[in-house]
Specification:
Blueprint lengths: L12 E6 L6 H17 L1 E2 L2 E2 L1 E7 L3 E7 L7 H18 L8 E6 L2 E6 H9 L8 E3 L6 H7 L1 E3 L11
Antiparallel strand pairs: 1-5, 2-3, 4-5, 6-7, 8-9
Helix pairs in contact: 1-2
Protein name: ABC transporter ATPase
């Protein structure tokens, strides 16, 4: 069951999929339509899942699930991953690779491999105050308050000298 992302409780489970490039407005519109259709029929063991989404900065697909009524099962999580894989193929983008880092480079959002981010940290091209996107957040509350954080406050801190 599709609901407005903003109405999901703060305890909702969150999945953040970062795109390897900025999406066009047309691609965002297509993703929005397809994600709406997917979430309308998303179920776990026959129970409708109350879920919403948002697309941030034409780069991140954020799906939230209210687990108070029904939780995602292995099969429903597999279905969502399959859906994201289909989007990857259709748009020729990478959405599932967790070995990439996205961060602010001035006013722009940069997307680098983890190896390149480590090199940048070693060269001091990124600092402890560089704002990174912590895509490992698990709940809507964490997403709202700890997703865009200085590198020193996230798992990225281990790469900063």
């Amino acid at each position: 069951m599709l609901v407005d992302f903003n109405t999901l409780p703060d305890t909702s489970r969150i999945w953040v999929y970062q795109c390897s490039r900025k999406l066009s407005d047309e691609e965002v519109a297509a993703i929005s339509e397809k994600t709406s259709e997917f979430l309308k029929q998303w179920t776990a063991h026959g129970a409708n899942l109350e879920a919403g989404f948002e697309i941030k900065y034409n780069r991140f697909i954020v799906i939230g699930l209210n687990q108070e009524n029904a939780s995602a099962s292995g099969c429903s999580i597999d279905a969502s991953v399959h859906f994201i894989q289909q989007l990857e193929k259709e748009l020729d983008v990478d959405l599932l690779d967790k070995m990439n880092v996205t961060f602010y480079n001035g006013e722009y959002i940069a997307h680098k491999s983890l190896a390149d981010f480590k090199k940048m940290a070693k060269a001091r091209s990124v600092s402890p105050n560089t704002v990174v996107f912590n895509n490992l957040v698990n709940t809507k509350e964490e997403y709202l308050h700890h997703w865009e954080v200085p590198a020193k406050e996230s798992w990225h801190s281990r790469f900063l000298a």
